[in-house]
Amino acid sequence: MAAADQEPHVSAVRPRSYQDESYLHGFLGTMSDLQKAGVLQDVVIEVEGRRFPCHRLVLSAASPYFRAMFTCDMAESRQKTVVLQGLDAGMFGEILSYVYSGTLHVSLDKVQPLYQAADLLQLDYVRDTCSSYMAMNVEHSNFVDLYKFADVFSLKAIRGRCLHLINRNFVEVASSEEFCSLSVNQLTEIISHDELDVKEETTVWEAVVRWVQHSREDRLHHLPSILPHIRFNLLTSDNTTAILEHPLVREDPGSSAFIREAVQKNPELKPRHGMSTEMALLFNTSVGTNEIFFINPREGKYISCSYKPEDLPHFVDMTVTSDNDIFILEGKSSEDETHLSLFKYNHAKNVWEDAGMSLVIKRQRDRKCYKYLLYEVDQTLYLVFVDRNYGWALVQMRKYNQHTKQWLECSQLQFNKPLHKHADFVTLSCGSHLYLFTSETCTMHSYNPSQDRWSKLTPPIDIPDICRAVAMGTEIFCTDYDFTKTMVYNTESDRWQRLQGWPNPGKFVFYLPSLFVLKDQLHVLLTCRSESQNGIVHQVYVYDRSADAWRELKATLPNEHYAYELESCSPVARIYLPYLMGT
Q1: List of domains in the chain
Q2: Which of 330, 579, 558, 569 is nearest to 470 (CA)?
Q3: In what order do the strands lie in the sheet with 50-54?
Q4: pLDDT tens, residue by residue, 112-151
Q5: 525 exposure class (CB count in 10 Å sphere: 0-12, 13-18, 19+)
Q6: In this structure, are strands 43-47 and 81-84 parallel, antiparallel, or unpaired?
Q7: pLDDT one-digit tens code per residue, 188-210
């Protein structure tokens, strides 16, 4: 074919879309100018007698509420003036300012009515912004008021934060005027919480009496529905007698009968948060003993509990959950498998009970399980164990599914180089992740449960012989065997910071230190053998962060051996001392 006869070449050019950003911004600015100039307005919105000339098109574009009003066959679609009920005129003005400018002005004094207006008009951005603003500004002066508001509009995050502050400040809250304005459902929700910071249950009863008497005629009939939320099993007989003689109870025979029945049944309702004491748990490892020491050096409380050999499992690890449940992990090994059982502490009876969560770990003949560790992350229990094979190490995990009541396999962590047979692993939970530190390689890894994935973290550990670690908030505190080097790792900034270590005065030879957190402060218990006297001495120090120094607490502990080597820190639980002492 001749060149002249050939079809011309057509290049394949794809179509493109172009977006004029200046037009988009300019369009909104133009509509704002038209609104200010009062031009082309075709509807008047009347709120509380105030008239707001507007554009139907703009209102319909911004709000599904107005879009339905003006586009459906409603009477308002044909009216020149539309009257809105249930709105504050000032807040509607703020809403209009946002609709025409895209800018929202929020402050504490108007955030609640602004949220209500946005909720009615279905303005998601305004509603979400107000919700976030309230959540960020929950404070001592407004948490009761915000709780009531969040309860009405089902704002879960704000409601949860407010409840936490109400629980922690219940004595003060119960004496306020705002407390008396709570609904009966709000009252019963608050007094049902385990986390109430009260020393005695009579405080809860007195708060209920004050609430009822604030509007006696309207509220007295609610008393029978409130009484089940008072924990009569925590009252003394004298307290119970005094309540039965109270005029409110005597007026209602049904209330009196309920209280008598509740006392006789003595239900095992948990003590309130304020009735319990944070205690670190230590174990006497002397031959032939089955003792657990519950200590709180800050309050000078030291209680020893002895158990029968059959009542205290032969444990390999222990953990305390966010719900204050204490679990002991028991392990029994044969040639090719390990039988693991969990026992849960019954606070009221001071006994250990089989939790019914047993697990069998099969092992290959050329492998040896190094240690078994138990942790909780986001209310899920995780079992961590290390398999060794001629220097190679494999970290395995199982998690317990509460619904199926089964242990499920999780991702493994394989080290790509041989490790020394004495290389140690320190594991702990912090926030929503598990963390693993390796003493020999000075590396650390984190496990993300939501992704079921291990990740190696960037900054190396500057503690070659790390042996102890404890979490506090979003930080992890680590130390070495001799407690000469202490560091803190911030899980949010992914950075290490060195802290002041213990200046060994040379008077003692230290065993492994034990870290624990009481009242949001870092503590260390040092087991020492005195060079001047033949015996063991225990010393407790608290870390003063502002001074970067350790302050000694005068702790009087029995000179016994304690099992610190079971895990990286001493577990801490909230203990109701009358249960512990059998009263």
Answers
A1: 23-136 (3.30.710.10), 173-265 (1.25.40.420), 276-580 (2.120.10.80)
A2: 569
A3: 50-54, 43-47, 81-84
A4: 999 999 999 999 999 999 999 999 999 988 999 999 999 9
A5: buried
A6: parallel
A7: 999 999 999 999 999 999 999 99
